[in-house]
Amino acid sequence: MSGQTVVVNLPSDSVTGIVLAGGASRRMGRNKALLPMGEASMIERAVQAIGKVSSRVIISTNDPKSYHFLGVECVLDILAGKGPMAGLHAALGASNTPWNVVAACDMPFIHEQFLQGLLNLAITQDTVEAVIPVVQGRMHPLLAVYRREVMTSLERKLQAEQYRMVEWVEELKAAYVNEEQLEHMTGLDPRKVLFNMNTPDDYEAARGFSSS
Ligand SMILES: Nc1nc2c(ncn2[C@@H]2O[C@H](COP(=O)(O)OP(=O)(O)OP(=O)(O)O)[C@@H](O)[C@H]2O)c(=O)[nH]1
How far is the CA of 42 from the centre of ligand 1 (A)? Predict the structure, then answer.
């Protein structure tokens, strides 16, 4: 942590927060979104963090009953079973704000300061369509910021049955933000914030981390 103060520039009423929670969690063997992490479930942590930087939160899922207890609006995939790009597509279709901050439900160290850092960069870049973290050469399109208009190119990809999100993101006019910039912008360790859980071992590792 650098201790840097993050300045809030973007009014939250220009931002919709989207939590992706429509996956099958096959590798985990149970719904990742409902796993407890510290005092709350994974989905509650994501909704809380994203709710601090946006005026409206949407859960993108095909299983709204599981999230009814949260009292948060759920949006169903238009193309069900096609992965996170389809989830983002449906949620952007429901959005009415220029900027949209997206997070997967399986990131235990998600932090509003990180999201705000990405949003702050987004509004200083008139021509960019997205702000995408890149850590160790790997893009992280599931914790990122998108203009609503990217829905058009996303829809084209889905119609062409091209479901590799990184390939789509590479075609966007995006600000790709490296590890050093991310740390400077947010005051947080990007590797930790961007860590995501796929397997029971990842879950154990994250729980160890969060209680230490
Ligand atoms: N709305 C929506 N979200 C999805 C879909 N597939 C994955 N996600 C979400 O996207 C994020 C990354 O998902 P993955 O870990 O790649 O896939 P998963 O299906 O959850 O897990 P595995 O079955 O183990 O691959 C998670 O937040 C998922 O909930 C989908 O078809 N629709």
Answer: 14
